[in-house]
Protein: NADP-dependent oxidoreductase
Organism: Shewanella surugensis
Amino acid sequence: MEQTINQSVVLAQHPKGSVILADFRIEKQVLPALNEGEILIENHWLSIDPYVRPRLNKDMSMVNPIPLGGVIQGEAIGFIIESKNPQVAAGQWVFLLSTWQRYFVTNGKNTIILPLPDSPLPKSVFLGPVGTAGRAAYFGMDRIARPKAGETVVISAASGAVGSIAGQIAKMAGAHVVGIAGGDKKCRYVVDTLGFDACVDYKTKDFKVQLRQACQEGVDVYFENVGGKIATFVAQLLNEGARVPVCGNISEYNKGGDMKTSGPEQFFQSLPSAPHAQFFLVTQWLKDYPESDAWLLHAVESGQIKYRETMHAGLEQAPQAFIDLFDGLNMGKQLVKI
């Protein structure tokens, strides 16, 4: 009987600062037969996400580190080839918490496996605007920010997978939305395609001046994806009663060590007139995924929410796609098509 070979991306060494290709290694293994209770899923698309970076460090207290030789973990869209688990049927497409490998075997415990709904959209959309990125934008806005018509909302990493959706949700609420992105191309995309009212290039020398001009009435909501210096600039413009959903802190992720992924929350809470700043994980609202997914799916299918994908071909390209993410080379959702 012909053996099935699985291909995996594993952690070869702990990164020292910025991630490099040598931090990863491609391995091949013979795929074993399924045991009772197990499910065999073939991954077709991988989600490349910044939150994986802290888990590559040797010592982390806030998240579980990936051990040396361990397969890199991440979200995927896959097809269930075989199931010996009575709770999961073969022959269906699913969103799942998976790993960077061609085939994924699980007993269904300590993971998430969600069947995909019928939709004319590409299945990869369930890793982006109708996946975790979209859910983060939805819950960050709906449960924490709650923007009102006429308020000013600022979105960092505005051309990225989360920020692009968060800003469009704020526009649907009637807010004045200002994006922050790196480079003229991204800023034009944020305004011309996504419909933000303005977008400021943080790479320009007069960034602070441009940001203040774009937010002449101050800032009522700041959707935080970046942290670092950008957060300190926005903090100077916050109005009384401002809300700050803290979704990410990507500017700090490559520093290594036991860093706090929720650092911006403590920064904003330490301000003299502290806004309501709240670090959140999208899984806090796991039970409400049906609500968010239905809303996001309708918004994308109807064209109310626009999105973009940056697609890399082949599992072996996952490490480079991950590096590109931190170099800001992606537009919208960063994906690998296996």
